[in-house]
Amino acid sequence: MSLQYFYFIIQYSAKREAGKEAQSRTGKMKLEVYADRMSQPSRAVIIFCKVNGIDYTERKVDISKREHLTPEFAEINPMKQLPAIVDGNFKLFESHSILIYLACAFPGVADHWYPANLFKRSKMHSVLYWHHSNLRRAADTYVTNTTILPALGHPSNQQAAAEAEKLLFSSLSKIESFWLKGDGPFLLGRNQPSIADLSLVCELMQLEVLDEKDRERFLGPYKKVQQWIKHTRNATSPHFDNVHNILMKVKEKLKNKPLMEANHGGALDIQKRLRSGI
Question: What phi, psi does 79 have (nearest 5°)?
């Protein structure tokens, strides 16, 4: 069997299965998305649904109130993490798996989000797998330990923050020099965004809560990364900004942190105000 014929069979089978899945959704209950918009992967899933006109119900799970650790939510996701979805009798967690499922199961999602082409799809998978062990681990650990935990009055791990800082610079450098290599403005040199673009840019948006000088220290050297964030934001407008609105509110509260400490009782008040935005 030639490689071309093998490739054709795989593509044909994938399209046929996607068609069956779309048909099987007829009559199902509305998709439920369990999310906290302060969660980067939660935002990616919500934006994807909005951009692609997927009808869904958002079930808010407040991480700051530890609602993701309840027995009720464990019935949805035994790992007790966000996001998660319920589609009829089907339950799924892990944001990348969710995005892939949504792209395949719902009719009308443009091919550029998750290409039917096996080679393009495999390249996209390589970005998604890289993301979890590099950019996500770095950005989440750094922001949590330098900004979120101190603002909530919790102890932070400075050693973890220092290690995450190195990995974050390394990750941004690889995005700039490798993943954004090509003629197009999106990952892998493509001309339209994919689920990988959305997932990684939502991750980087978490840097918005950093001090402006700190954020500029990370993103300033990487002009292609800055343009890529802008292109992804514009391609998913107005939903991108709407879904990130809660993050921007938290950013403002953290920006005014010294004023809060002086006028409203210090760390306890910051904790209440930050959580009110979450």
Answer: -75, -15
Both 77 and 192 in one domain: the answer is no
How many domains does the structure of the chain reveal? 2
Helix (H, G, I), strand (E, B) or coil at 29: coil
Average pLDDT along the chain: 88
CATH number of the CATH domain containing 83: 3.40.30.10
What is the C-alpha separation between 109 and 152, in angstroms, rounded?
39
Domain extent, residue 100, equals: 3-109
The strand pairing partners of 57, in sequence order, are 32
Residues 175, 188 contacting (CB under 8 angstroms) = no
Q: What is the pLDDT of residue 143?
A: 98
Q: Give residue-wise pLDDT tens across range 159-218.
A: 999 999 999 999 999 999 999 999 999 999 999 999 999 999 999 999 999 999 999 999
Helix (H/G/I), strand (E/B), else coil: 221: coil
Confidence of residue 264 (pLDDT cuts 50, 70, 90): very low
Q: Are residues 134 and 194 located together in one domain of the fold? A: yes
Between 11 and 267, residue with greater pLDDT: 11
Tell which of 49, 84, 109 closes a domain. 109
End-to-end CA distance of the chain: 55
Higher-confidence residue: 18 or 265? 18
Q: Parallel, antiparallel, or unpaired: how do β-strands 84-87 and 31-35 relate?
A: antiparallel
What single string gives the DSSP state of each residue in 70-87?
Answer: SHHHHTT-TT--S-EEEE
pLDDT computed for residue 20 by the predictor: 54
Q: Are 198 and 99 in contact (CB under 8 A)?
A: yes
Rounded Cα gap, residues 150 and 170, in angstroms:
25
